[in-house]
Amino acid sequence: MDAPTFEELIAEGEAVPVEGWDFSWFEGRATEARPSWGYARGMARRLARAEAALDIQTGGGEVLHSAPALPLLTVATEGWPPNVARATALLGPRGVAVVASPEDAPLPFADGAFDLVTSRHPVRTHWAEIARVLRPGGTYYSQQVGQESVFELAEYFLGPLPEEAYRARDPEEARAAARAAGLDVVDLRAERLRMEFHDVAAVVHFLRKVIWIVPGFTTADHLPRLRALHERISARGPFVAHSSRFLIEARKPAHA
After folding, report:
1. What b/e readout covers 196-214, taking b as 16+ CB neighbours within 10 angstroms?
2. Per-residue H/E/C for 148-207
3. Three-class SS of residue 133?
4. What is the value of pTM for the model shown?
5. What is the per-residue pLDDT across 183-220, written as a single tens digit (0 to 9) for each?
6. Which domains, ranges and CATH numbers included, belong to the chain?
7. Would you list the DSSP string of 11-49?
8. CA distance 170 to 185
9. In the sheet that 30-32 helps form, which strands lie side by side, from edge to edge?
């Protein structure tokens, strides 16, 4: 069987739906090492002990849905309408209320409403709001995108990134922001993880799905670089990049 042509791969990468955070389509086409701490497992353990939980920026709800047991009161927020619909369909049968809430808006919940707040890869962490909705003694548990994540791919298309981009998403800044909001940081870990893209369709789908890597990405705007990347992968093997992740867990003092 002949290998797909460049045009066929581009069309395939453009056709795959981008809603939610299900990355199963990439199997056999791209790989990414996973952080050693196992965020979904850690979240599931905390959910099993919680009384009231909030998952912020839940995407399509896939990570929250992976937990075997959920508290009786579990709520999720999401800002992108296609993901709100997807998360509602997935989580509604489990009794989870999905609230449409813009990423930069205040959380639409009362003070001290939750003893557990979780978030996987938030666009931005609103520490003051998280501290407000946590009960005294409550926990915020989050895996976040760290420094210089997938910069190899970003710079392939955009050229050298500005110096301030290299300083963004510093885990120590997250620690300082959590403390400024009155939370105690009890765990902070960071890892850099190998990624491989085995064909240009995987690159196209990834950049359509993870929109902050190459903002405003379209195949039409980057067709010459995509063709060169296709030829490079065909001749030399997978395109290698590295993702960056950090885990942060913070608690609201019990006396607050």
Report:
1. bbbbbbbbbbbbbbbeebb
2. CCCHHHHHHHHCCCCHHHHHCCCHHHHHHHHHHCCCEEEEEEEEEEEEEECCHHHHHHHH
3. helix
4. 0.92
5. 999 999 999 999 999 999 999 999 999 999 999 999 99
6. 6-251 (3.40.50.150)
7. HHHHHS---SS--GGGTTTEEEPPPTT-HHHHHHHHHHH
8. 15
9. 30-32, 184-197, 239-251, 134-145, 114-120, 52-55, 73-78, 97-100
